[in-house]
Amino acid sequence: MPGKPAPIKKSPAKKAANKKPEPAPESEPPPVEAAPVDAPPAEAAPADAPPAETGPVEAGPAEGEAAPAAEGLAAPAVDLLNAEGVTPAVPAEAALMEEPPKAPTPPPPAVPTSAPLDVSVEDVNDSSLTVKWKTPGTIGDSGLDGYLVEYRKDGTTDWVVAQEELSQNNLYCIKNLTSCDVLHLRVVAVNRGGRSEPGSLAEPVLIREIGERPKIRVPRHLKSCFIKQVGEQINLVIPFLGKPKPVVSWLKDGQPVDTRVNIRNSHKDSIIFIRSAQREDSGIYEMTVKVDSFEDKATIALQIVDRPGSPADVKLVDTWGFNAALEWTPPKDNGNTEITGYTIQKADRKTGVWFSVLENYHRLTATITDLIMGNSYSFRVFAENQVGVSETSAVTKGVATIQKTGIVYKPPEYPERDYSEPPRFTTPLADRAATVGYTTKLLCSVRGCPTPKIEWLKNKVIIGDDPKYRQNSTQGICSLEIRKPCCFDGGVYTCRAKNEQGEAAVSCKLQVKRTCLKQTEGEVVKRQIHVDCFPLFTVCMLS
């Protein structure tokens, strides 16, 4: 490789300006990647590094001047000069900064998983067996590679692996089994840490064809909580399926059923009978129907309820005016069911008779109002649930006395209103036609305040007290009755009403007609021909 030309020599003034008290290697970063080819010659720099640190900065250019005079070995050293003519001691610092590599962290030791959970039989026939299980509760950092299913015949100790490769599923079918063999099963989880503890089947399995799997058919009314009162009879029938005849067992809250509960099983149903239910019969009843290694379970919730006890600690908090404030706490015995309300009663100390003031009340505080002045009252509270009201009550120890106070009744003042108005006819008179000899009546209605005085006129002449006419005025209804009118009673009739506010009048026309007879040879024929009767003359038409 040809050598590079030497750098231009700087003037002494420029050298003095560039002179600094700090060493040159610390002023600029080392250009390590600038010339990777010249790396071998640069290895000789550590020998010159001590003089560079102790000597002045101008020593760099002096060495640079001698570099062109040297042979080809000095040419790579020129590349290490910076722009200011200073040679940085890069290799020396790099050697000091390097640290030995750290040892890699060893991986954690491999640990096997916990045992598979809930190993059970999914299906069985005369030549195969299907087993299922759940994933182990603890797997760890080593993970899970798969499962091994192993079995052995009853009476032997040699376990046989059922599959050639690890099973990735939580279900496996073992085939080509011999009928009527009794097998023990276990499942093992495998990972880098090895085999886990086995999860085993609780009881051995008989390899044979099952006629019908067990199945409990819970009635609809038993799928929710079944509620009965204390003393009532309980008779529950739960049907089921299964062949051959299943084995039926019962548990109450995980314990054997008490002898008070009678259980009768048949090939198709199971009956629970309790002659007189008590509150201790409440609980969760679990029914299990089993055919060989297959089983079905069902739960029935039974709740026996009773009336609640009385509320506790009833207090009379305050009394003011005609009111009294009460408070209490819920009863300690709720009758094995929820409290639905309270009933509050009061009694006057004079009579001692109790009256209900609040029913189905849901709060624990109440204010009793409308108490009678001068009386003293006691209060009691009953609790209530879905069965009924408690048999006993809690009575207040104190007595609420309503003090007598001087009360003066002041009637309210109402502004006076003037209801006076002039007469006004609401129903006017209507024109009428009457027949001679037949009584007729004229009607109208009037209102006014004060009550107006009524006068009747015929042809603008006041009728007065003529006995032929009957005048009547009741509740504003005015009537004029004309008794057996004749031809002279026709005309214009007027009703006039007067009071202090004014007067009003209505009129109508009355026509009076009569009946004429027609006479023929040998007989008389009646024909009604109505003719107007006029006061001056009468016209009769005969044919």
Automatic annotation (TrEMBL):
CDD domains: FN3
The organism's place on the tree of life at top rank: Eukaryota
Sequence ranges of Pro residues compositional bias: 24-33
SUPFAM superfamilies hit by this protein: Fibronectin type III, Immunoglobulin
Boundaries of every Fibronectin type-III domain copy: 115-210, 310-405
Domain named Ig-like: residues: 224-301, 423-507
Residue ranges with Low complexity bias: 1-10, 34-73
Assigned keywords, A-Z: Cell adhesion, Immunoglobulin domain, Muscle protein, Repeat, Thick filament
An annotated GO BP: cell adhesion
Positions of region (Disordered): 1-73
InterPro entries: FN3_dom, FN3_sf, Ig-like_dom, Ig-like_dom_sf, Ig-like_fold, Ig_I-set, Ig_sub, Ig_sub2
GO terms under cellular component: myosin filament
Similarity remark: Belongs to the immunoglobulin superfamily. MyBP family.
Function: Binds to myosin; probably involved in interaction with thick myofilaments in the A-band.
Protein's name in the database: Myosin-binding protein H
